[in-house]
Every structure is written in C-alpha cells, then in structure tokens.
C-alpha cells in the first residue's frame, strides 16, 4: 500500500489548499491530477474564478480531485463561505484508474480535510453552480431562502 505522502508529495498541493481556504487569498479553487500513468498526484491548476472555470480543467478522459470555495447567502449579512470536494472521473477515464480512485480518494482527504460536501461524478452537469449551491445549502441545515412553505 503506497503511503499517502508518496501520492501527495507535491508541496504545492498543501500551499494551494491553504490558499483556497484563506480569505486573504484570491485563489478559489484547485485541481489535482495524476502524473502520467503513476499514482502520484500533482497540482494541475488553481484559479480565482468560479466553479465553471474550475470545470474547464476537468477532461473527459481524466481522473482528478478538485476543491472549490463558494460563497452562499441571500445578502451581504447572511453570506457564508463553504467548500466542496470533487472526485472527478471523466466518462472516458480508464477502468483501472477509476478502481484505484476509490482507495486513493481516502488518501487525498487526508490533505484536503475541510469541506461541506463531497461530489463524486463523471458528469459536469453535477458541477453546475446551481447544483453545487443546492448541495451546500442542504449540508448547512437551515435554509433561509425566500421560498414559501408548502404546508
């Protein structure tokens, strides 16, 4: 069994994670990808845009892990920062890579520890902003949207 440190040996990963977590950093997301055919992960990209920008880095034939900061709220007084962890296995990802990911995602979670929701998907529709916001709101518990109750 490879050690988690071997899989996540790129020091840029922990720095990017801290940047995404920090309110002082403009970095809002990161994507980790496998080096060629090895099990080692490297920081593939970071960005300052929204989740749609992050999704542009996820290929249909790739396995990747992503982490994104999102701000939710109805107004400036109810804004909350939440984080989503994404396990991406594109629809054309090789079967062996997908199989290894189930084990390796646990190791990635040792480096990317704090998030409100985990999304495992092979469909970018699951990563559309509205979908992810809905998942984050459910994870938050109380929902103060201005929707009328149906009772």
UniProtKB/TrEMBL annotation:
Its main location: cytoplasm. InterPro entries: ADF-H, ADF-H/Gelsolin-like_dom_sf. CDD domains: ADF_coactosin_like. Pfam families: Cofilin_ADF (PF00241). Residues 5-137 form the ADF-H domain. One of its GO terms (biological process) is regulation of actin filament polymerization. It is found in: Cytoplasm, Cytoskeleton. GO terms for molecular function: actin filament binding. GO terms for cellular component: actin filament; cortical actin cytoskeleton; site of polarized growth. Keywords: Actin-binding, Cytoplasm, Cytoskeleton. Belongs to the actin-binding proteins ADF family. Coactosin subfamily. This is ADF-H domain-containing protein.
